[in-house]
Fold this protein.
Amino acid sequence: MRRPVIAFFPEASFGAALNCVGIAQELERLGAEPVFLCHPGFGGVFADYGFKEYRLSGDARPADASAAETWQTFIRVHLPHFDLSPADQLEAYVAPTWDAIVDSAIAVEAELQDVLARIRPDAVVLDNVILFPAIARAGCPWVRVISCAETELPDPLVPPYLSGLPPEDRDGIAAFRRAYARATDPAHRRYNRFRRAAGLPPLPRGEFLEPSPVLNLLLAPSAVRYPRAVPLPEDRFVFLEGCVRREVAMDIPTLPMNRGPLVYLSFGSLGAIDTGLIGRMIDTFAGIEARFVVNVGAFGEHYDRVPDNVYLGDWFPQPSVVAQSALFIHHGGNNSFCEALYHGVPSLIMPYCWDGHDNAQRAVATGTGRHMHRSDWRPDALSAAIADLLGDTSLRSRLAAASARMKADPGPTRAAKAILAAAGLGVTAGLEADAEASG
């Protein structure tokens, strides 16, 4: 019997990619065969976890390198815009980003159709912010994963996506919705023309991805979940408490100054480019009695003064490091925020853009972390924020309770079973196929 094939197509970000890895690991345990469709620059990411990859828009390393350089250039151009408010980022950053996303959807469509025709998956899992028509027309169920903030799925009681606004700011919400629609209109009109040409109906103003007709998985732990005016149908919408992948363990190295709690800093693939900001933070860490593990990506050569209580690296098995940490300083990406919650670790969120603003606001509103501006801070203020979070015992107690709930309901297991059911397979189908193949 053929093992069920589940094709994953995450967006070109490590948050979405690694969220999907956790689900794929569980699907494999249940007897399915997960495979990954890769954007340029992400080739090898999934193979490192043992999964088969299908690289889109060229398979050669020079193409991967070119994609990485293009992304770095895009981010460097927009670094000044990350200091702006969410509303001011709409014209400066959000609109150009949607243009780039629509470009990528159009560019990859023909190749994506060919790859899906070759794979013939039993289901396609899309963890992205835009629908690719080839997925809707692949001849199998497609599953939407919302691994960004829950705000991506609109509701009258949920603030607008990317706004960073609290639900009670009704005037601010109305103004943001109008500004968002204006800023994204050109990209949205272009995307709707593309959809019509591909035989799909247009989407309402401001929307680039509809819910799946069969299954939608929301990475939204109950500790930070919003109440909704319109309940989501439970047969098509499944909330996940977390999607933490299985990862190698890391032994934290002994530092020359090896006293105090462990603090982990990672601004993800986007923030690692911001070497000036990270350098300021490292200088501040030198005066704090704690140990700091800092993800600097591929930019380690930019740091010539490293304090004795700081360890730099280009990559870390993040779940393992977070589990050992007393504080996680990050950009508010939903994957990082949920990993912190899963391990009961406070978050100091310094958002750059996108769902970072939403998660920073939600961390403060739910008492699970603290929000600081990305770059507008003094060293004494950053030191005080770190000390406050490390010493807040009531916060740690709340997070321990949230962590226990999340670990009692593993997101990858819930997601994998729901995907198999949506594909009409059920858990036993995968296990029976695996047993027959082995014996």
